[in-house]
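User: I'm preparing a small set of examples for a lab meeting where we compare how different chains pack in three dimensions. I only have the primary sequence for this one, and I'd like the structure in token form so I can line it up with the others. Please keep the answer compact; I'll paste it straight into my notes.
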Amino acid sequence: MRHLSKYRRHRFAGPMLLLFALFMIGTTYSVANATPKLSTNSFAKTTAIDEGRQIFLRGCSSCHGLNAEGGSIAPSLIGVGAASVDFQVGTGRMPMADMSQQAMRKKPLYTPEEVAALAVYVASLAPGPAIPTEAVVEYARDGNTAEGGELFRSNCAMCHNFAGQGGALSRGKYAPSLMDSTPVQIYEAMITGPQSMPVFSDKVVTPEEKLSIIKWIVSAQNEPNLGGASMGRTGPVSEGLLIWTLGIGLLIGISVWLATKAR
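Assistant: Understood. Below is the structure token output for the 263-residue chain.
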């Protein structure tokens, strides 16, 4: 005690004690303030999972099973991730009445909040692709339109058409048009592989290349038709049909008219 008491009257004793007291108070406040936040976040996530499970049981379990294990007409959802749910349900493709048909884009049945809760529940079953955030899908800053066009023609045009208008596949299936797809939905499709589409992992198409593809698709969505009618931008099929019906038809009509005049 005598060893410590001789420092009590030191000129730096007061400031040091004040700094130590402030440090202890700040540390105690930080620890006490962090614990309720952690509990609140955990509670909110648990609530979202419970809500998503109730939605799943009402609208999805009849096909995908009570525990999302899949069935005879629908695949398992364990491990598909939140991105797959957000894409399929957020675009109205799911739920669907007839699982034997290809899912079509339509008005979503659930609200964005319900879609988010359903995605959280499915994501809690097993690890899978997460919903890409706005920071991830920053195509305007990190994408390259010219590179995206080359990548699209190499990897996507054989199904979705060279202009992203969609096209027919085998056995009655088809690749949908991309003209109404949002950047997040395009990214989700590439990382989840819905319907007949393959999964483009980051090893096959890097995140930067994905953003370039998205940037090119967005530019195609906003491209004006400076040459007149677009005719669906499906290429020589629609153009050839137009030439045949109008051009050849007009020539036939002129020939018939000339023949009647010759009489």
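A couple of notes for your slides: The beta strands are 167-168, 174-175. The domain at 132-223 is CATH 1.10.760.10 (Cytochrome Bc1 Complex; Chain D, domain 2).

User: Perfect, thanks.
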